[in-house]
Amino acid sequence: MDLVQLLRERRSIHRFEDREVDPDLVAELLDTAVWAPNYHMTQPWRFILTYGEGRRRIAEAVRIMKEKREPDASRKKEVGEKFYNKIMAIPMLMTVIMQESQNLIVRQDDFAATSIVIHNFSLLAWEKGIGLTWETYPWIHEPEFREAMGILPGEKVLGNLHIGYPAAIPQAQPRVPAAERITRVDRA
Ligand SMILES: Cc1cc2nc3c(=O)[nH]c(=O)nc-3n(C[C@H](O)[C@H](O)[C@H](O)COP(=O)(O)O)c2cc1C
To answer: Where are the transmembrane segments (predicted)?
Structure first.
């Protein structure tokens, strides 16, 4: 697939086939994805791949969080179970973690660089027929999740990528033509 087609045809995928994703393939793709521009060459990222029985670790943490935060006591179990099952239906989750610099400028540049790694990975995966959605639901920042995944102080979670072979590919969401957002400056 050429790059133009890859960029235009990639979609965020929410429904997956019940099919495993090879973690060695994901590791190989990541090894290319990390060739992102990175101003300070801090390479601040790390990745946790969760799949198979490992998913129970995230699913349990989510169940606990959702039960704890559900105000209606009679619905706690049901809500917890719903989120547990949602996580278990995702073939693989990749938690993307960034070491947070104390320096604001470095931290912002690092956030940009890590985001590029994520999109690089997304395109490389798409080329292999693997889809994903970058998810930033609030509970990735909750202590229950951080503890379950061994996320250290000073590390920021950029998201969970939900990864798998697409069961459905959503319609494209149209983009505003870039021409409408371009200002041309060609004279003094
Ligand atoms: C930083 C970031 C966070 C996102 N978080 C979510 C999310 O929490 N849930 C979700 O369904 N999609 C999330 N998305 C995916 C966007 O919703 C998606 O990219 C957008 O709808 C355009 O669809 P497309 O990726 O198929 O072109 C996120 C994307 C980015 C870049």
So the answer is: none
The answer to whether residues 12 and 133 touch, using CB atoms and an 8 Å cutoff, is yes
111-170 residue pLDDT tens: 999 999 999 999 999 999 999 999 999 999 999 999 999 999 999 999 999 999 999 999
41 within a domain of the structure (yes/no): yes
Domain ranges, residue 114:
3-51+91-170
Judge if the beta carbon of residue 173 lies within 6 A of ligand 1: yes
- Residue 20 — φ and ψ, nearest 5°? -70, 150
CATH number, domain at 14? 3.40.109.10
User: Is 33 a domain residue?
Assistant: yes
Ligand 1 near 133 CB (within 6 A):
yes
Of all atoms in ligand 1, which is nearest to the CA of residue 13?
A: 26
Q: What's the pLDDT tens digit per position in 61-96?
A: 999 999 999 999 999 999 999 999 999 999 999 999
